[in-house]
Amino acid sequence: MQPFELSLTEASRAVRARELSPVELTESVLARIAAVEGRLGAYVTVAADAALAAAHRAEREISGSGPRGPLHGIPMALKDLIDVEGMPTTASSRVRAGHVAERDSRVAERLGAAGAVLLGKTHTHEFAYGLTTPQTNNVWDHSRVAGGSSGGSAVAVAAGGATFAMGTDTGGSIRVPAALNGVVGLKPTYGLVPRTGVTSLSWSLDHVGPLTRTVQDVALVLSATAGHDPRDPASVSGPMLDRFPGGDLRGLKVGVPRNHYFDRVAPEVEESVRGAIERLAELGAELVDVEIPMARYVQAVQWGLMVPEATAYHERSLRATPDLYAADVRILLEAGELTSAGDYLRAQRARTMMRDAWARMFDGIDVLAAPTVPMTAAEAGQEAVEWADGTTEAVSDSYVRLCAPANITGVPALTLPVGHDRAGLPIGMQLMARPFHDATVLRVGRVYEESVAGAGRLAPLAA
């Protein structure tokens, strides 16, 4: 096994044991990027020289005083919405040409303090306003979408071009590409990971979180990045996680949705996810049928919040340089100008009601288990999907539909791989819990992961 094939947990263990140096690990990952990046398009920029310098520095520090923690010397990537001092933050947009960050985002600052090695910046759907990331190819099938908007981060991790990566999630932008590329992704509880220095899409829905190869890897990154930041008005104090119990799931109640999450879902996705839920029962969990409250309002609330907030953020640049935006993003931003204050306030009110209803739902369960997305990766350029009931849905609407509730309510949501369709494309299961019970979804995900073969494997991409 080459170093780039190691999961974060495995690489950290090898570095701590002095079996692998940060330089060897970083060189291996950079070589992997060089071998596959031309086919994948995961990165906006690769800072190879700076990464190697950081790896040498980490090697000296570990040799002298030992590792600061599990991320010390581990090569990682940041979605190109996340500021790093002295580096461009392009948001994968011509609007940001020439922009250079003046200071680190809080997330980059915390990862730097943990000793992580920055490889570079990964592609996003322009300003995170989309679910496909058109610059990037799916690692399992290059003719298909990577998912978005954190598509570059997911593909880099799935291909071995980063040991872990950070993304953002406003309506599924971590979980969608993670599911479509067969990796693990966490949208933490709203406010748990600060967003200071991160380009916003929709301030009341935005989250920052990790994409990794295993659930245990997610916990290590969350521990290093979570915590209150007074510069982010939505930031809150929460549990610091670096370890959590494994074992079985006895005494834990897993909610199985009767509505919404299995409506208009591809048969192979439903089969794999229901099989994974049954596996949770075999591991000791009690399955409980639940009704998803206010499901019919999910799309209206999500768009009612996101569209006007995004337009407000881009108001000046949209008026000054509208032609620099991609057509799909410009249409959405212009649509936001037509949203009335009354419509926005009604969406906020409905969100409050939905949060309360979900809190009552979680009074009877510990975790909700469901598909992450209703279908596997669509063909690049495919605009719509036709379901068995005869309805037609835009691909982007399809991908956001099952992820949006967790953004609206702010609950933690983890996706992990649970199978493949007939074409060999990955299928993801989503686990959600009440706010600040991130450790619960990580525990359930880890127990499931340890019960199946092949967890943490790279996508079968030839070098």
UniProtKB/TrEMBL annotation:
Residues 24-442 form the Amidase domain. InterPro entries: Amidase, Amidase_CS, Amidase_dom, AS_sf. Keywords: Ligase, Transferase. Its EC number is 6.3.5.6, 6.3.5.7. It is an enzyme of class 6 (ligase). It comes from the Bacteria. PROSITE patterns: AMIDASES (PS00571). GO terms for molecular function: asparaginyl-tRNA synthase (glutamine-hydrolyzing) activity; glutaminyl-tRNA synthase (glutamine-hydrolyzing) activity; transferase activity. This is Aspartyl-tRNA(Asn)/glutamyl-tRNA(Gln) amidotransferase subunit A. It comes from Streptomyces griseoloalbus.
